[in-house]
Amino acid sequence: METDTITAISTPIGEGAIAIVRLSGPEAISITNQLYKGKDLGEVDSHTIHYGKIIDPETEEVAEEVMVSVMRAPKTFTREDVVEINCHGGMVSVNRVLEIVLSKGARLAEPGEFTKRAFLHGRIDLSQAEAVMDLIRAKTDKAMSVALKQMDGRLSGLIQRLRQELLETVAHVEVNIDYPEYDDVEEMSHEMMRQKTKEVNKEIENLLEVAKQGKILREGLATAIIGRPNVGKSSLMNALVQENKAIVTEIPGTTRDIIEEYVNVRGVPLRLVDTAGIRETEDIVEKIGVERSRQVLKESDLILYVLNYNEALTDEDRKLFEAIQGLEYIVIINKTDLEQKLDLNEVRNLAENNPVVTTSLIEEEGINELEAAIAKTFFAGDIDTGDLTYVSNVRHIQLLKQAKQALEDAVNGLEMGMPLDIVQIDVTRTWEFLGEIIGDTASDSLIDQLFSQFCLGK
Ligand code: GDP
Ligand code: ZN
User: Fold this and answer.
1) Distance 285 CA to ligand 1 centre (A)
2) By CB atoms within 10 Å of each CB, which of 8, 173, 216, 405 scores lowest?
3) Whose CA is closest to atom 15 on ligand 1?
4) Residue 2 C-alpha to ligand 2 middle, in angstroms?
């Protein structure tokens, strides 16, 4: 168990004006008491908040007026004593407060260390801890609510239930083998085992299916707006950005930082990537040929293909239809305020089963219909995302795939008539893979690696 007291700046999500210095550990209260002028925090009730001043030990002057929350173990996030010093004076003063706290013997927390302690003290399981990380990175409301639910233990609950079923199966086989004389324990047959493993496999498959949507929620749909020059691609981009709050993020690590714009269309986060070949793909077919352009387009999750109502279809338009065949796309027929020159029937034929929406971006018409089409494409019908258990974490998806593979090995073994005690080795492997998701069978180094990915202060 950790015995020192850690501290970091941990600013709550969505509250820019307040910054918090958080302490956790056995000395959290006594350290704060040394630099705090107000009530004796050693005497106050747990889970209370107090107004006071932080005194700078060098100048003996007031460094900051603060509200201090005192929360005693074990009913805290880390299950240790926790103090939160709420500063309102901006980053300079919060940094000064942190310095003072450090000078009194607290240690600067490593990234994710608060959450790691919560995990190590059994307060949360690994998938919940990872949800904290997702929460910090969440870019849309929906992604945030998915993370919140995971933190809440929904995924853990489901995984635990599946593991329990596998465990019971294995235990059943063990009993049959070790105590063949127990007549009251029903003999586990190949058929029973096959049924159980298939049931669990089906549930894992379901989880993996919704994982695709989970990834979308977390990372946004890579969206390409394509079409010939002048059809209204930039206008569409602007319309989407204006209607929906855009979040601009810079992703470092590339020579030229890529600017991405996130727009949230009815809960579907679109990631409009502003790099050559994605945002402005006019002439793409001409420039790089159908095969290559298809490759570029393939990397998009969604294609918005814009056509001009005021122009007849060209060969280039038809080539673009070919290039996006089999991909997820929506056709937008723009400029309906102008005279019709486009053959709508031909367009509908070429578009096969993909949605076709008409707009006049200049008159701000049809944008609602387009947004509805986008939402419908990704939440097939009216799936209430609130009720799904999403797996949105790459590590979890990887483990689920491994679990599924192991379980399929078991099913194959059963079908080949292998003895149950051999088959159950694969069932046990499945159980272990699922366990790694919630941290039950995770090794120490994995845990260290995971927690080091957290932001500081969480
Ligand atoms: P892009 O080259 O495909 O990006 O097309 P732009 O968005 O730059 O638009 C080309 C021109 O078409 C601009 O002058 C726009 O104002 C105009 N435009 C865009 N949408 C409409 C529309 O719905 N109706 C009309 N009449 N003009 C439009
Ligand atoms: Zn443009």
Assistant:
1) 21
2) 405
3) 232
4) 57
Looking at per-residue pLDDT, the higher value among 141 and 126 belongs to: 126
220-384 has CATH 3.40.50.300 classification: yes
Query: How far is Cα 36 from Cα 52, in angstroms, rounded to an integer?
Result: 7
pLDDT > 70 in the chain, percent: 69
User: Judging by beta carbons within 10 Å of its beta carbon (0-12, 13-18, 19+), is residue 92 exposed, middle or buried?
Assistant: exposed
CA–CA dist 171, 216 (Å, integer): 39
On the question of pLDDT at 264 being above 50, the answer is: yes
Per-domain boundaries in the chain? 6-109, 151-214+393-441, 220-384
Q: Return d(Cα 284, Cα 277) in angstroms, integer.
A: 7
Please, is 18 exposed, middle or buried when counting C-beta atoms within 10 Å of its C-beta (0-12, 13-18, 19+)? middle
pTM of the model: 0.47
Contact criterion met (CB below 8 Å) for 125 and 439: yes
Q: What's the confidence (pLDDT) of residue 458? A: 58
Residue 342's pLDDT band, with cuts at 50, 70 and 90, is very high
* Token reading at 369: 């219909």
Give residue 359 CA to ligand 2 midpoint distance, Å.
16
Q: Which residue bears the tokens 């918005």?
A: 304
Q: Taking the CB of residue 93, how many other CB atoms lie within 10 A of it? A: 17
Cα Rg, the chain, nearest whole Å: 28
d(CA 119, CA 399): 20
338 ligand 1 Cβ < 6 A? yes
244-260 tens-digit pLDDT? 644 433 333 332 333 45
Q: Residue 414: pLDDT above 60?
A: yes
Q: Please tell me if the CB atom of residue 229 comes closer than 6 angstroms to any atom of ligand 1.
A: yes
Q: Give the environment of ion ligand 2: residues with CB less than 5 A.
A: 233-234
Please provide the CATH number assigned to the domain covering 151-214+393-441.
Answer: 1.20.120.430
Q: What's the whole-number mean pLDDT along residues 181-204? A: 78
Q: Which ligand is nearest to the CA of 310?
A: 1
Most confident of 17-31, 260-274, 279-293: 17-31
Q: What is the pLDDT of residue 367?
A: 93
Fold of 6-109: Gyrase A; domain 2 (3.30.1360)
